[in-house]
Amino acid sequence: MALDSKIPSGPMEEKWSKHKMDSKLINPANKRKFTVLVVGSGLAGGAAAATLSELGYNVKCFCYQDSPRRAHSIAAQGGINAAKNYQNDGDSVQRLFYDTIKGGDFRSREANVRRLAEVSVNNNDQCDSQGVP
Asked: Quick check: is 15 in a domain?
């Protein structure tokens, strides 16, 4: 049995943007027919669950802690990098992609890391607007 990671086909730089363009839209009247499972209630999981439920989906949010307030986002000591490309910074999606693959000892799925690099700017801006330090 072969595992299917559901990574879109095509060149690395175009996988996810092509996938977004080829995906069918969900009619707002049909959103209640879908149940979305969100695993984790930290910053990302909580924001995803709240946003998807505001959009009209049935959402179930699961956490492994004793309560949803005990998410590890509060105790995180690292951070997420983004290809913000400030003046004279030299950042780019390609550079963040390469650094993340190399930093993970080349054990990551390249297509997923590429997607992370592409959406990193918007993710950081969203965290900033939520007041995340």
From this structure: no
Contact residues for 50 (Cβ-Cβ < 8 A; gap 6+): none
Q: Supply the DSSP symbol for 107.
A: -
Compute the distance between CA of residue 99 and CA of residue 110 in angstroms, rounded to an integer: 12
The 10s digit of each residue's pLDDT in 17-43 is 888 888 888 888 889 898 999 988 877
| Angle formed by the axes of helices 15-22 and 110-129, nearest 10° | 70
Residue carrying structure tokens 């004793």? 66
The reported pTM is: 0.55
Which are the contacts of 56, defined by CB distance < 8 A and separation ≥ 6? 28, 31, 32
Instruction: Decide: helix, strand or coil at residue 13.
Output: helix
Number of domains present in the structure of the chain: 2
